[in-house]
Amino acid sequence: MNSLNQVSLKGKRVLVRVDFNVPLDDNYTIMDDSRIVAALPTIKKIIADGGRAIVMSHLGRPKKGFEKRFSLNNIVGHLSALLSQNIYFSSDCIGRKTILDVNKMNDGDVLVLENLRFYAEEEKGDVGFANQLANLADIYINDAFGTAHRAHASTAVIAKFFPKNKYFGYLLGRELESLEKALASPKRPFTAIIGGAKITGKIDVIKALFNTVDNLIIGGGMAYTFIKAMGGVVGKSLVEEEKISLAKELIEESRKKSVRLLLPTDSLNADSFNNNAKTNTSNIFEINNEYMGLDIGKESITEFSKTIKESKTLIWNGPMGVFEMEKFEKGTKKIGEAICFATNNGAFSLVGGGDSVAAIKKFGFAQDVSYVSTGGGAMLEYLEGKPLPGITAIQN
After folding, report:
1. Could you tell me which residues are beta bridge partners of residue 194?
2. Is 146 an active-site residue?
3. Residue 385's pLDDT band (boundaries 50, 70, 90)?
4. What is the C-alpha separation between 224 and 287, in angstroms, rounded?
5. Any catalytic annotation for residue 51?
6. How far apart are alpha carbons 17 and 54 in whole angstroms?
7. CATH class entry, domain 4-168
8. Which end of the chain is more exposed for a tag (fewer CB within 10 A), N or C?
9. What digits encode the pLDDT tens for the residues 155-166?
10. Homologous superfamily of domain range 176-384
11. Sorting pLDDT into bands at 50, 70 and 90, what band is 377?
């Protein structure tokens, strides 16, 4: 692995791609700084070595050019407080103004560039745009796992301009080590917990996991498509009708691969999608036509938790229910507790995906699992066995 520890950064202009795509409220205040905190070790390493840290990132999905709410100037004050030093900001990420800002830097300085996605060329993977970014620095570091699956100018294309001076940041390195620990030589039993609303987007990862895991637990909204595929009556529950035949295929494939596929046996149901709805619990195959399933029931929690607690390697992506509502959070919370219990007893646990990460933060479990991934989409594609452009660009 191209490690940061292999190179001297003193006096060097170091362009580091981070993932500062953090949620902001209406006053542009950061609501969750986890991604910023995760990038601090790499930035601190550059500073400590006497390098000049030129930080670049995207923020949000700007539609056309500059938008104040997506300006990276909104995070400069917070980053400054976290690093306990003054941080400089460039109002552009390429061009003469940015070059002048970089040239003013002294050893140990940190300069944050404006949002890369104010230029359409970033997402298009434009070579010219990547070249302009590359001209700002002597060394390139990618520390943005959350965008490693995108072939963008700042993550994949830019690396070719640094044939001998491109490195993984500490965060990205930890992500890869954790994924490899889970996939390459997992301690068994190995259990994956896949949840969320839909099968769509998780088909390939489920198929890939069939080649690796001993147990695959399915929860969340996607479970009802599987149940309907097995002849169940699921009322008004979320069902992807066009995926029913695929669900049947996945069930059959689990049998062929000798993977124990665990689906919920009972369901907590509601007569409407809100926290004040009338609820009941039923066999998941027999949900009243006026009700929809919004969480797994007690039997499923017990069965899933038993399997999880007996496991030595765990991957969790996706909640068991609508955990954002108090009435329907129990399934996700109890599964999280079981993962923490297993971890405390020596299991390796990897949690990734926006909703899973939000859930463990809500319930205070983040410190009790082995690793929390910063990249949901990138993690899924890695689990599928797909090459990630941002990773490949550093390795080649």
Report:
1. 218, 317
2. no
3. confident
4. 10
5. no
6. 9
7. alpha beta
8. C
9. 999 999 999 999
10. Phosphoglycerate kinase, N-terminal domain (3.40.50.1260)
11. confident
Catalytic, out of 44, 160, 181, 198: 198
Residue 328 pLDDT: 98
Q: Are 346 and 319 in contact (CB under 8 A)?
A: no
Task: Identify any residues that bridge with 246 across adjacent strands, giving them in sequence order.
Answer: none
- Say if residue 217 is exposed, middle or buried (CB neighbours under 10 Å; 0-12, 13-18, 19+): buried
Identified catalytic residue from 260, 309, 377, 386: 377
- Residue whose entry in the numeric block shows the structure tokens 């030093």: 85
Question: Of 12, 17, 35, 202, which one is the catalytic site residue?
Answer: 35
| Distance (Å, whole) CA 136 – CA 158 | 11
Asked if 293 is an active-site residue, the reply is no
- Give yes or no for residue 2 having a pLDDT over 80: no
The tens digit of pLDDT for each residue in 291-339 reads: 999 999 999 999 999 999 999 999 999 999 999 999 999 999 999 999 9
Q: How confident is the model at residue 354 (pLDDT cuts 50, 70, 90)?
A: low
Q: Report the C-alpha gap between 29 and 95 in whole angstroms.
A: 28
> Would 4-168 and 176-384 be classified into the same CATH topology?
yes
pLDDT mean across residues, the chain:
95
The structural domains of the chain, with segments of one domain joined by +, span 4-168, 176-384
- For residue 336, indicate whether it is catalytic: no
